[in-house]
Amino acid sequence: MTAYRLRGVTRVFGERQVLCVPDLAIGAGKVTALLGPNGSGKSTLLNILAFLDAPTEGAVEFFGKPARHSHKELLALRRQVVLAHQNPVLFTTTVKKNVEFGLKVRGVPKAERERRAGEALDLVGMRGFINAKAHRLSGGETQRVVMAQALALDAPVLLCDEPAASVDAENRRVLLSLLERVCKEKGVTVVVTSHDMPWARSLAHTTVWLEDGAPVSAPQSCP
Questions:
Q1: pTM recorded for the entire structure
Q2: Cα torsion at 85, 91, 93, 98 (round to 10°)?
Q3: CA 100 to CA 110: how far, in whole Å?
Q4: Among 43, 81, 117, 139, which has the highest number of CB atoms less than 10 A from its own CB?
């Protein structure tokens, strides 16, 4: 089963084509790594997968169904996908309130928010920081809280933009183990972008190398 299928997907800004994906399948319940140099199209592709941006041309399927970019359908699609940004910004409140925020926005009752936030913090090894001020955390601790935010939402897809870029070796190991567990134990589809090829390849079931906006193994047939 595939989580995503992209056919003839392009993204154009002005007169410049920055993405060209003739055909790409991303397996459900697997880890896929998007690799490539700066400017290769990784973040552009990730935004399309997160339904934050629409292709200029082409079709995207999500779990076997066409993804349409009407306002009503986009809201439903976005609630099934969580994007963890490369440079996350946490509120200057407690770790607990940061993890609960997305649940509160979605109208989840307080008791349920607290339960899910606590379970997510346990999973990422940050329960001891539950009442700490989030803006005082280290880079690695911040990334783990961002993962807890994502896991608390219980979405079937987790997209991570350079999760290992600004953390030390120990936190890279923690993040690798965490993403492996999330995929294996919860069946979450994980897509990561990374410059750290050994780290990404040790994690991923499939790697996709992008150059000039296109998978290098794909024929350049986009318009």
A1: 0.90
A2: -40
A3: 9
A4: 117
